[in-house]
Design goal:
With about 190 residues, the chain is of the alpha+beta class. It folds into two domains: about 50 residues; about 130 residues, Umud Fragment, subunit A (Ribbon). The protein has three helices and eleven strands. A seven-stranded antiparallel beta sheet has the order 1-2-11-3-4-9-10. A four-stranded antiparallel beta sheet has the order 7-6-5-8, with no helix packed on it. Strand 6 and strand 7 form a beta hairpin.
């Protein structure tokens, strides 16, 4: 036992000493309560932030290669309701989640030709940042596709074998979970 503890043990039990000990215990208890209150508020804040406003999802495959690779984390904004051509979005189709780039929106006509050319409104698209041809996928989608209001034609950047609008047709706005804001590279984690 330390010298100070021995001295306190020898001190007579006085009301002042009892009050000091209780205040000390209450101070410790109030710090614990304060910690749990702060933890609760932080949890509520995080649930609101990432449950309502933002979402985080991993890229499960290389369908958006070379810009987004398998394993990268995507931060997306859930409350976006105006999407434009070239926006990268997270969407859900038939219970599965996908990531793709919007190439056309409501009112546009989209066609993928037999010679792997993408045409929007009868104009051949030249995409300088897409390095792969855009082949047609059998007879799943009948071309040309006329997009209605709040419908989008979404393609993956890696055009060979990726599941996108060539496979399941137009994507409605209600199926889009959000617009990708940032990509966290797996190599920097």
């Amino acid at each position: 036992m330390s010298k100070r503890k021995k001295e306190k043990a020898k001190e007579p039990l006085t009301p002042e000493r009892v009050i000091r000990a209780r205040i000390h215990r209450l101070a410790d208890w109030s710090e614990i309560v304060s910690f749990f209150i702060k933890l609760t508020w932080m949890t509520v804040f995080m649930v609101l932030l990432f449950g309502v406003f933002f979402g985080i999802t991993p890229m499960k495959n290389n369908d958006m290669s070379p810009r987004i690779s398998s394993g990268d984390l995507l931060l997306y904004y859930r409350l976006e309701n105006k999407f434009h051509s070239q926006d990268v979005v997270v969407f859900e189709k038939d219970g599965k989640q996908y990531v793709g780039r919007i190439v056309a929106g409501g009112g546009d006509s989209v066609e993928v030709t037999d010679d792997s050319t993408l045409k929007i409104n009868n104009s051949t698209m030249f995409e300088s940042d897409i390095f792969y041809p855009t082949p047609k996928y059998g007879d799943e989608v009948a071309y040309p596709v006329a997009l209605e209001e709040n419908q989008y034609f979404i393609l993956c950047d890696y055009r060979n074998g990726a599941k996108d609008s060539r496979y399941f047709g137009a994507v409605s706005q209600s199926e889009i979970k959000g617009k990708v804001l940032a990509v966290l590279r797996r190599s920097s984690l």
